[in-house]
Amino acid sequence: MRTLRGHQWPLVGWLVVVWVLLWGNVTAANVITGAVVAVVLCLVFPLPPLILGMRIHPIGLVRFAALFLADLTVSGLRTVWQTLSPGPLPCAVLAVRLRCPGDLMLTATAIAVSAVPGSAVLEVQRSTATLFVHVMGVDSEEARDGVRRLESLVVRAFGTRAEIEELDQGGTS
């Protein structure tokens, strides 16, 4: 017989909240039936424990937020200027191999890159830690450097000590 493990109880709690929200009112019956449904779901479809491997570094977080906000502003203004200017707009699809191949850092970097105006992550190749990025109006090397700079900011804000050391040593690229 299966039992719930410690890492599954937050999921049970979240499922009860969703159940109550779906029914629209908080009653004892809704909470109890939501708890029963949540426990049954977690027993029938158990999830493996999630190891985040994330640490928040306050100085890195402040630096990431400030430079990311500046990057958003500059890229937004550049994108507006390029779209309003006459003539063809140079675009490219680049493969950028990241230095920290961890899933969390790869995902966070891809999200940060996609949030910047004028760029979009088209594909993430997990096996090689490569982002395929569509960029407009910038030089290829400038775009690659921008992605790597964002990766560095993300890792220094949220990465583990090992990931930061790997970044400092040059990583895999």
3D architecture notes:
A three-stranded antiparallel sheet has the order 1-3-2, with helices on one face. By secondary structure, it is of the alpha+beta class. A hairpin with a 4-residue loop joins strand 2 and strand 3. The protein has two domains: 6-44, no CATH class; 58-168, no CATH class. Helix 1 (9-23) crosses helix 2 (28-44), helix 3 (58-84) packs antiparallel against helix 5 (140-158) and helix 4 (103-115) crosses helix 5. The chain has helices spanning 9-23, 28-44, 58-84, 103-115, 140-158, 161-168, and strands spanning 91-97, 119-125, 130-136.
Query: What structural class do helix, strand and pairing data support?
Result: alpha+beta
The helix content, as a percent range, equals 55-70%
Low-confidence stretches are none
* Content of β-strand: 5-15%
Biggest beta sheet summary = 3 strands, antiparallel
Distance between the termini: 48 Å
Number of strands: 3
CA radius of gyration:
22 Å
User: Secondary-structure element order, as H and E?
Assistant: HHHEHEEHH
Total count of domains: 2
For the biggest β-sheet, the strand order reads 1-3-2
Mean model confidence by pLDDT: 89
Bulk shape: elongated
How many helices in DSSP terms? Answer: 6
